[in-house]
Design a protein that fits this description.
Blueprint: E1 3-10, E2 21-27, E3 30-38, E4 48-53, E5 57-62, E6 68-74, E7 77-79, H1 98-101, E8 112-117, E9 124-129, E10 135-140, E11 153-159, E12 162-172, E13 178-188, E14 193-202, E15 208-218, E16 228-230, E17 233-238, H2 241-244, E18 263-269, E19 277-283, E20 290-296, E21 302-309, E22 316-323, H3 330-335, E23 340-342, E24 347-357, H4 360-374, E25 380-381
Parallel strand pairs: 17-25
Antiparallel strand pairs: 1-11, 2-3, 3-4, 4-5, 5-6, 6-7, 8-15, 9-10, 11-12, 12-13, 13-14, 14-24, 15-22, 15-23, 16-19, 17-18, 18-21, 19-20, 20-24, 21-22
Length: 392
């Protein structure tokens, strides 16, 4: 395969400016483009952006924000949402301990954002070892640090068939976790799909805990009254008493409702034999537009559906969240044996594919695939929270 463009945008240890690029070409009958720039003004000052357009699907990667994906578009299907946080926020302006450990939310406006690498989920206290090896209690903040860590190395590769953005992000400290994320965001030219492959490596010699959750967020018009989330499941339970109120409609959405208080549902999904592949679909009310996630339960054994159908100015949004664990406090997840430990030098690689569906035919085909998997599982809906799935 002949490479048309292959260049580093950020080199480790380099002080050079993030370049401004405007690349264009034609392949397989599709006109593709890649442009890079740096945002200026306000809290977005210095945020780097890589906009990829494969001729059908477009999306904007944010190296400054842990290689999150700000927003996307495929035909008439919007990938993203309207957050009260209007611009990408430079991590220099994020104080994670704000509002009792909820400072992460001051930068929360992306379509695809990672939570991790050492911890994710609700804020709360946990016990770690200090530099002398003694246990002590520390406050863990909402969803960890990786979304607010700038990439140390970024590269772009365009071939005659695909566009690939790669990034390297370090979450490291002395006498603490030393984890590195290497990500590859790849899309075939002219397709409505993208694949995100992440490798997390323990750079240290000692074992370290690792958690990862993908917060994949959608707003209008894909999210609307009558929209549905469809996935094959073995069991689903409400996270808390508030979520229990809506368990009868856990997979369906209402219109924007000012004052709505968020709900979350914890799923154990069903998958294929062997590879344990599964999928989750968010479709609009008409069933002619959808976003489809494909991943392995070996990579992400836990799945959370977050519903926040609040007023439009407050963030009318839902999140589809494949993860290594449920987004409870880490101490609780460790007790349930859902926290991964990476040995010194060990790496773990995961993959997720996101497809955009733009016709009733394609949406029905995906729903039929889900229905086939659902036949392999009973599909239990718990009316109340399950003690082993949610806790503090």
């Amino acid at each position: 395969m002949k490479t048309q463009y292959s260049l580093p945008l950020v080199v480790p240890g380099s002080a050079q400016e993030f370049p401004t690029l405007n690349l264009k070409g034609t392949a397989s009958g599709a006109e593709w483009s890649v442009c890079t720039y740096t945002l200026r003004g306000g809290l977005q000052e210095g945020v780097q952006v890589i906009e990829v357009n494969n001729g059908r699907l477009s999306f904007a990667v944010l190296p400054t924000r842990g290689m999150s994906i700000w927003k996307g578009q495929c035909g008439s299907v919007r990938l993203g949402w309207d957050s009260p946080v209007k611009d990408p926020v430079n991590p220099a302006f994020i104080h994670e301990q704000d509002r009792g450990g909820l400072g992460w939310l001051k930068g929360f406006n992306e379509w695809f954002v990672r939570c991790g690498l050492n911890s994710m989920g609700a804020p709360g206290e946990d016990t770690v070892l200090d530099y002398s090896g003694n246990p002590y209690t520390v406050p863990l903040t909402l969803h960890g640090k990786i979304a607010n860590v700038p990439a140390r190395a970024v590269s772009l590769e365009v071939t005659k068939n695909a566009i690939c953005v790669r990034g390297e992000v370090d979450e490291t400290m002395m006498f603490g976790p030393a984890l590195r994320l290497n990500t590859e965001i790849r899309t075939e030219i002219g397709s409505g799909e993208m694949t995100i492959t992440d490798t997390v490596t323990n750079l240290g010699n000692n074992p370290v805990e690792h958690q990862m959750l993908y917060h994949i967020n959608y707003g209008a018009p894909l999210l609307e009254e009558g929209a549905r989330m469809v996935a094959p499941f073995k069991q689903v339970a409400p996270r808390d008493p508030r979520s229990q109120e809506g368990i009868a409609t856990h997979d369906r959405y209402g219109a924007s409702e000012p004052g709505f208080v968020e709900q979350a549902y914890l799923y154990e999904l069903a998958g294929t034999r062997g590879k344990r592949e599964t999928l989750a679909l968010l479709r609009n009310a008409a069933g002619n537009q959808a976003s489809l996630l494909r991943f392995s339960l070996k990579d992400f054994p836990c799945f959370t559906l977050w519903k926040n159908t609040a007023g439009t100015a407050d963030g009318y949004v839902t999140g589809l969240e494949p993860a290594t664990a449920y987004p409870n406090v880490r101490r609780f997840e460790r007790e349930q044996k859902r926290v991964i430990t990476l040995a010194g030098g060990e790496s773990r690689t995961t993959e997720i594919r996101i497809e955009t569906l733009e016709s009733k035919k394609d949406v029905k085909a995906a729903e039929a695939e889900i229905a086939k998997l659902q036949k392999t599982a009973k599909g239990t809906v718990h009316p109340e929270p399950v003690p082993t799935l949610s806790g503090s």
